[in-house]
């Protein structure tokens, strides 16, 4: 059955891969790979997976993991720039790292910190680490996050990227049942063009998009 791309809305999609649990389709326009809606987890089952996460600011290994986004983004921020950590999870840590560096932070998470006031402000930067791959409606959500940025603001995304079909079939990243959309370099290039933002890809799992000045 023809599937609609949840990022760009195109109906020009094709079947990409099937494993023992679910199917994966790819958009011909933006090259997003995605799981069809009928094969996604229900919210309660999705949250049950997240409840198993044991992330903490006291975990030096987790801080090192987050530094892949933290370091290149912080290098691009003005002193005192304020940010939002979207999808902070049950143990917010990236926000703590930025606050320690002098950047005031807000957090939002649909399960653990569903504060609508955090999405009603504007920020110098917005981060989403290991979040994009979970989004059921990535087009709508990423447009919303970009709209929260002030001119010259940064959207920092951390998510592993699709390379080839052969690699995809052996990829540990697709084994997580909460991972439902998968970006590639081309996908991020499409997104940057769509949002009229400047794109940098400083690492294999990091994308930085900067809002243009007015």
Write the layout of secondary structure elements.
Elements (H helix, E strand, L loop, with lengths): L12 E6 L4 E5 L5 E2 L8 H8 L9 H15 L8 E4 L7 H7 L4 E4 L14 E7 L8 H10 L1 E10 L2 E2 L2 H5 L11 E4 H11 L1 E7 L2 E6 L3
GO molecular function: methyltransferase activity
Keywords: Methyltransferase, Transferase
Organism: Billgrantia montanilacus
Can you offer a commentary on this structure?
With 214 residues, this protein is an alpha/beta fold. It has one domain: Rossmann fold (3-Layer(aba) Sandwich). The chain contains 6 helices and 11 strands. The protein has helices spanning 43-50, 60-74, 94-100, 138-147, 165-169, 185-195, and strands at residues 13-18, 23-27, 33-34, 83-86, 105-108, 123-129, 149-158, 161-162, 181-184, 197-203, 206-211. The strands form 2 sheets. A 6-stranded mixed beta sheet has the order 5-4-6-7-11-10, sandwiched between helices. It starts with 12 loop residues before the first strand and ends with a strand.
State the gist of this model:
This protein is an alpha/beta fold.
Defining key terms:
single chain; alpha/beta; Rossmann fold; methyltransferase; 214 residues; six-stranded mixed β-sheet; 6 helices; globular; methyltransferase activity; five-stranded mixed β-sheet; transferase; Class I SAM-dependent methyltransferase
């Amino acid at each position: 059955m023809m599937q609609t791309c949840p990022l760009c809305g195109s109906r020009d999609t094709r079947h990409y891969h099937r494993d023992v649990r679910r199917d994966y389709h790819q958009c011909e326009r933006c090259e997003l790979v995605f799981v069809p809606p009928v094969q996604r987890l229900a919210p309660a089952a999705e949250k049950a997976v997240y409840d198993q996460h044991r992330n903490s600011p006291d975990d030096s290994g987790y801080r090192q993991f987050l530094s892949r986004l933290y370091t290149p983004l912080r290098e691009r921020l003005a002193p005192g720039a304020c940010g939002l950590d979207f999808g902070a999870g049950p143990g917010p840590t990236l926000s703590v790292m930025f606050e320690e560096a002098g950047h005031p932070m807000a957090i939002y998470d649909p399960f653990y910190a569903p504060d609508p006031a955090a999405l009603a402000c504007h920020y110098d930067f917005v981060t989403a680490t290991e979040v994009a791959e979970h989004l059921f409606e990535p087009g709508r959500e990423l447009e919303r996050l970009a709209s929260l940025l002030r001119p010259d603001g940064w959207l920092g995304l951390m998510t592993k990227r699709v390379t080839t079909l052969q690699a995809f079939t052996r990829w540990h990243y697709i084994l997580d049942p909460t991972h439902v959309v998968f970006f590639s370099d081309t996908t991020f290039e499409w997104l940057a063009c769509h949002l009229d933002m400047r794109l940098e890809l400083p690492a294999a799992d990091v994308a930085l998009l900067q809002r243009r000045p007015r």
